[in-house]
Amino acid sequence: MVTGGRKRIINMAGLALLLVLPLLAEAADSPFFVSVATRVLIYALAALSLDLILGYGGMVSFGHAAFVGLGAYVVAILAHHQTDGSFIPFLPGAWNGSTQALIQWPLAMVVGGLFALVIGALSLRTSGVYFIMITLAFAQMLYHFMVSLPTYGGQDGLSLWPRSELPLVDLNDDVSFYYVALVLLLLALVAVRRLIASPFGMVLRGAKQNEARLVSLGVPATRYKLTAFVIAGAIAGLAGALLANHTEFVGPGMMHWTRSGEILIMVILGGVGTLYGAIVGAATLLLLEEGLAGLTEHWMIFLGPFLVFVVLFARRGIYGWLAGREAGDD
Amino acid sequence: MTAQLFLEQTLNGLQQGVMLFLLAAGLTLVFGIMHLINLAHGTLYMVGAYVAATVTKLSGSFTVGVLAALAAAGLVGAAIEMTALRKLYRRDHLDQVLATFGVILFFNELVKIVWGPQALFLSPPAALSGTVEIIPGVPYPAYRLFIIGVGLAVGLGLRYLIVNTRTGMLIRAGATHRDMVGALGVDIDRLFTVVFAIGAMLAGLAGAMAGPMLAVEVGMGEQILILTFVVIIIGGIGSVRGALAGALLVGLVDTYGRAFLPLAMRAALDPAAADSIGASISNVAIYLLMAAVLIWRPRGLFQAYGG
């Protein structure tokens, strides 16, 4: 850790900022900012899961918003059936949902992971540009499926009321919700970091650098990549569960491919293969959107060229620039 | 199901397939030769549609509108290629995806500023606004037949261009041996700009022709872009033949799915549930088709020259 000094200082400063942020917002008399920051944390969680497969597994998934959307729908659908007392269709038993976070959120992760298993198993038969387009197409398929499913609101989506219930913590309180999101993000960060440092992570990174060589060494690389894809899908599902609670609304728009594009941009903007970069990227993009939207209705006309500029000239991302050579774990 | 309905739906499917082919041909050529994934291809389609709608209204002539759309899409395409995309050819696909995503955001907003958020509507030209009896007693809109005709003509023209002309020879050579073609004294930069502009004009043509059938609005490009991706994944990226086969397949499966799936479901379920589930499944039918093709042939139906 002697060599990691600069990186460590930046990470500690970032963590300290995140911990005291609600207090700062209160001091500045702008409680609205806590809600914006919660959104940043949730998208950071989604971007973190994408960085696991993109930065360490070399899988450019352009459909990550689908797993976020699925997680969100799981929460909203469970709450919807609980509220109107009806049973969830196509289940073997009769169950009318739940509003308990301890049931909803793990289930959102399971559903995200299961869909990632199916989509990943099919998509990983291919690579390169095919993989990008196929993940994109599968995400659009789920999007169109939800649009045309009137049972759960179709195009109009579902409102989520009340928010999920957690023992001891009231999620309707914005500050409590912020800290719940922060704890989950930090847990995910630690877990993914350990995963990457483990033998599993070594194989994953090896598959990114030279898959043919790994395969000839007798390592079933595709199985490792698929496992990582499923883990990423589950974490994205958790992000979706949080997002549903944050917006108190779930709609097919959450799964639209431009959302997947935004999550990808967060990863690139922060720095691919750095994990912390995902948080920096999510904060930068969302705050930039927020700031530009305050200045002009046509803020996208600035955001578009900004992205082109970042791709052309800032290749290591913001975190890579901040932390220097130590940014990545490779 | 009557023979008449089936014939109508087949023609509808062909018409949709032909539109997809116009877009897929350009996208697949650009990928096959420059190894560039261009998400902004749908943007050129949108530009074509907006310019055609506006010029047709101002001049009163659909032909002038289409020509203006071709010119505008070609110019915008060449301009994007020369300013931003040229630097991306040797970058990895991730960079290309992001930069062209930025281009989409920019143009969508620009179109909103220039034309406003309301959709434009355009009627087909007077000569093509009627119907034609394809077989006695079965009327079919002339404009849709016209689109099928234009699409097939473009397909044949493209084949002639690629197989029989010097430009086509360079395109084929550039796809497989880019550096060698450059070493032999061909101006690769110019060749790339020309290919990109050809693809852009095809997209613009598709946009112009879509005008009288769809609402011309921001976001129309992205909607069709994803379908175009499905087409070239099925057909095999880089292959123009594959683009044609994939486009017709996607057009027919999508149209048949929408027309016949709810009907077929009614045999098993009550009408309301049948319509709702049928609509949901037919909405995703082409993606299921894509998954099936991928299980069978992970690199698409046709292999491109470059592989």
Describe the structure.
The complex is a heterodimer of chains A (330) and B (307). Chain A is mainly α and 330 residues long. Chain A has one domain (14-256). In chain A, 72% of the residues lie in helices and 1% in strands. Chain A is built from twelve helices and two strands. Chain A has helices spanning 5-27, 32-56, 64-84, 101-123, 128-147, 174-197, 199-216, 221-247, 257-270, 276-295, 300-313, 317-323, and strands at residues 158-159, 249-250. In chain A, helix 2 runs parallel beside helix 6 (174-197), helix 2 packs antiparallel against helix 8 and helix 9 (257-270) packs parallel to helix 12. The longest helix of chain A has 27 residues, at 221-247. Chain A is globular, with a radius of gyration of 20 Å. The mean pLDDT of chain A is 88. Chain B has one domain (10-122, 135-296): ABC transporter involved in vitamin B12 uptake, BtuC, CATH 1.10.3470. Chain B contains eleven helices and two strands, in the order H-H-H-H-E-E-H-H-H-H-H-H-H. In chain B, strands 1-2 form a two-stranded antiparallel sheet. In chain B, a hairpin with a 2-residue loop joins strand 1 and strand 2. The radius of gyration of chain B is 20 Å and the shape is globular. Chain B starts with a helix and ends in an 11-residue tail after the last helix. The A-B interface holds A 54, 60, 62, 122, 125-126, 128-130, 132-134, 136-138, 140-141, 144-145, 147-151, 257-258, 261, 264-265, 268, 272, 298-301, 303-308, 310-312 and B 31, 37, 84, 87-88, 91, 93-95, 97-99, 101-110, 112-113, 222, 226, 229-230, 232-233, 237, 276, 279-280, 283-284, 287-288, 290-291, 294-295, 298-300.
